[in-house]
Structures are given as structure tokens and as C-alpha cells.
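Progress narrative, work stream C.
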Amino acid sequence: MVDKWVELNLTREGDAAVTRGNNGMADGERVNALIDLVQCNSIAAIAADDDAVFDYYLLKLTSDGADTLKDNATHDYGMAYPCGTVVLKGHFFLRDNIIERTYKLDNKLAIMHANIIRAICGEVQQIK
């Protein structure tokens, strides 16, 4: 048996990376196949639609895969997430030198919607 048809109006997304929310996601649902590949200490490229120069931010993960929030949470940058949201936790790499493409790891906790991960990065060279 087939349910009733539902008409949806779809809009085309722009070329820039788009941040998506978890609205309507079932608890624990994985929207993006990359989510299942991330591990603690992985470095992920996260969509950045509000940055005119860069399409992504780098996030060093402290969570082992995606977590479903058991309580409402606010990360150190001030963004609030409701209970039940599927998220990744970690620390952002802040741009230190744009020309040399060097970054510094920020000590603030970041919580991000899990479905905005765009890539898992390879090894990162540490400069002392």
C-alpha cells in the first residue's frame, strides 16, 4: 500500500557550501555517509556558507562519530542546539596565516550539526 502523495516545492541550492539543519531528522538518523567514518581526533571540513573567501572550516573532532544530544546544549561560540540534535563535537582550527595556509587549534568547544561535514582530511603537519 502507498501513502498519499505529498507535493513539495524544491529550490535549487547555490554553488557555495550550504549549512543544513537537522529539522525532521529521526533520532540518530545519519544523513551524510561521511558521518559514519569520523573518529575522535579526525579533522573534518565543515560547510561555511557565511564566509565569502572560504567554503569550509576545519574541525578537530573530540567525539567518536556523531552524538545525539540528550539535553539542550550551547557551545562556546554561543550557538544553541536542542535535545535530540545529531551533532559532532570538537575544536575549530583558526586561520593563522592565509598565505601560508597555517592554522591554530582553538581551545573552545564547538558543537556542529553532523550533516554539514563535507570531507575528512588527511594527516595534518604540525609546525612548532
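Work stream C, second folded protein:
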Amino acid sequence: MSDKYVKPIVITPGFYQLGTPAYPAYLSVGEYAMLIEGGIGATSALIVKQLQELSVTPEKIKYIALTHTHPDHIGGVIFWKKLWPQVKVIANTTCAKMLKSEELPKEFTKLDGIISEILLIKGEINEWPAVIENPVFDVDMVLGEGDKIDLGRGISWSVLDTPGHSPCHTSYYNRSQGIVIIGDATGLYDPTRDIFWPNYFDSLELYCDSIRKLYSLHGEYGALSHNGVIKGDVRNHFRKAMQATEAFHNGMFKRVANGEDPKKVTLETAKWVYTFTNMQPFEVIFGLTRLMFRRSQAATGKPDLFKLP
């Protein structure tokens, strides 16, 4: 596969952004190295080239830490594990169980192909990625809230359970460097327009709880699963994410309360979302918007749902 080359970005000494802006992965280097995010099939070869540019040898890579099991966040794992069989995949208990689902390989193959097609149309890759028959997603290390990942040379990551976007969503925190791996815990953020699409696909209540948990951390860098790194006042990002979530929830429900058809409301909301993200087909965006309307219904009336400390 010959990707259009994107250079790795130095975030802090020993911490790098790899992949593409829309589908980044991250690299933390101590005595050992750890990739964070499973990526997509279409950027797996690119990330291998970026690691070579950084002179990170396969022997140095010890872990791949997953944020969650959505197909666009695990696609690179099957490629990298084939290249580096010694690497251990890290995820939480819920994630490990979900990755054993018989339906996951079919879902992965379908969505990974759709994403590859979109990237080809955009000109971000030049060729279809290689196809791996019968993909298997095995977790080698099950970690959860409060566990540590020690990479040596003073580089340590804490594991944080941050469900809501998905039941298995995990974030990671490097206190010494002030880095928070946010993942998709605050939804999809477009920094060019400073706009959010909240993504509480599993639970609105848990999604807000996770934003509160991340807000309590001291962070100077917030690494997102899409569109790169927030630098500076990361707490302000969480504050804006919560405000955007409240506005998204209330916006739909006020329209329905005023007599509009819920189907019309969710369709028009999905069309608005599609104006700033076309990373997936519109039918997927629409389906997810309808799902979040149901999640909003389930959380209606919960006290202090959007309150920050």
C-alpha cells in the first residue's frame, strides 16, 4: 500500500501523533514504546513508516492500548500483530468480551472498507489496504480503572474507565507530562470550526459522568481519537464538550416538545452533523443520531446531568 505520506508530529519529548489528522494514533516512548489507538486498516502501513522515521524498532514496541472496540479504532491491530507478534494488546474487561463477538469481524470488514473508500475519494490514500482473511482481535492484557502501564524511564500511564460513548471506552492519563488520552469520550470535535458532535451512543448519563472524571484531571494535552491534540487549557475542552452535549440534548427535546415529529428532528440534526463530518456514510450518521435521541429519552429528568464540579 502506498499512502500519501504524513510526517509524525512531536507533541512532547517521547510522545508523538501518528496516522492522519482524521484517524490519529499516538506513540509513547520510555524504555519501551506503546501505541495508543488501534487505528484503521487504511493507515496501518503509514504508521509503520512513521515509526521507521522515528527510529522506533519493532523490538521496542511492547503494547497497543485500545480506547474502545468501534471498528474504526481497532482496524490497525490485526496488521500490526502480524508484523509484531510479541506486542501485547491492552483493553478493559468489557472490551475484551466484545472483541470475542462472532459478529465483530463482519462489522469490522464492512466499515473498514467504507472508510478506505472515503479516504480514497478524498485522496488521503492511494490504494486499497491489504485484506487480512479471518481477522482476530485478541486482548493480551486486561486492565481497568486505576491500573498502571509502566514504560520505564519515568513514563507511566493510568487507566481510566470512561464509558458512555461505548460501554467499553477507556482513557489514559500520563500525570508527569500532563497528557490525557481522551479518545472519543467527548464525541467528535472539529477544531477548525470549534464545534462538537456529542457521541453518547451507549448512555448519556455515563457519558456526562466520564466528562466530569476527565475534567478533574490536570492536563496540558488532550489527545482525541479524531482530529489530533488539544493543547493548553484542556479543562476548557471538557467544559465546552459538556455545554455542547447539553445543547444537543435540549435542542432535540425542545423541538419535539413544541410539536415537531421526532423523525424530522433527528433527520435534520443528522444533516447538520454531516455538514462538518463525512467520515462515515450519512445513513450511519442518521442511525447514530436516532440512537442518541433514545439515549436522551432514557436520561430525561436526571438531576445535575450536565453539571461540572
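The helical segments are 41-53, 77-83, 93-98, 104-122, 204-215, 234-257, 262-274, 282-299. No further action is required on this item.
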